[in-house]
Amino acid sequence: MSHSELNQLSRAEELFNQGNLEEALEILNDESHFEGLSLQQKSHFQFLKGLNLFYYNRGEDLISLGETIYKEGQKCNDNLQSFDGLFFMITGFAIASKFEEAFKLFEEAESFLKHISKLSKEILTQRKARLSVVKAFVGLHGDKVDLVEKSLVWILDSQEKFDKSFEIVWANLIMASYLLRVKSKFDLCREHIKKALSLAKEIKFNHFWIALCQLYYGVYYVSIGEMDKSLKYNIKSLELFKKINSSFNIAILLNNIGGLYGEMGEYKLAVEHLEESINLLEQIPQSFFSIEGTIESLITLAVE
User: Fold this and answer.
1) Is the pTM of this model over 0.70?
2) Least confident range of 126-140, 151-165, 277-291
3) Domain ranges in the chain?
4) Buried/exposed code over 75-84 (b: 16+ C-beta within 10 A; e: otherwise)
């Protein structure tokens, strides 16, 4: 490959790290840039593309990318490449609410990990953590919540030994959600959000994670009845997600803010935000966040 093409991919990585996800993805979507790359180089930029698609909640695109990576790994008998493909497929299936398909791939992914050789302990541990986190994510949203603690305890108990990475941020946020939704342990939930935000500020490609932490704070505060604080964090998260143009998360936040305004008796503002959320949700593929709930909230407000 030419130096100009490699420079383009490096430029995509730089744009991604700056929070310019759209321009980065436009470059990474051009398959011609990948021609002539070594498998290691290609894997690196495919990972960036997958992370970008994950941030945009594009489940079907993530499944497709994962299948491509998986097939490449099988073709050259590279277990690490095959595993990375399965990771993105599992994540994509979860985003697309195809949880049974995701569950079916765990055993194969674990098998690849067992047969990876000639790699550093750090890389292998990272992949094990990545699989554990996505397993917890699928379990939380796919009605197998027992997987959350089983998958995350070993990571969270020794997280100080890990390099700061998105996997550890994600693990803390999944645990926070589990503690809130399943266990009603509000103080512990807050501690995990706090830890996640602290870590998110120190990793690359962190704009999404910092915004997501603000969203989680918003959910936490509404759960303990502090509407004003919840509104503040939801608005902050909305501002951050708008900067990276993450339509799915923008729609969630508009829904959250609309609900809060409704609770506070600000019905006009509530309706405006819920309508805007519905307009966005109608334009993007549905996932585990359903448009029906927002429509029901809007109908309730209209009645009130």
Assistant:
1) yes
2) 277-291
3) 1-119
4) eeebbbbbbb
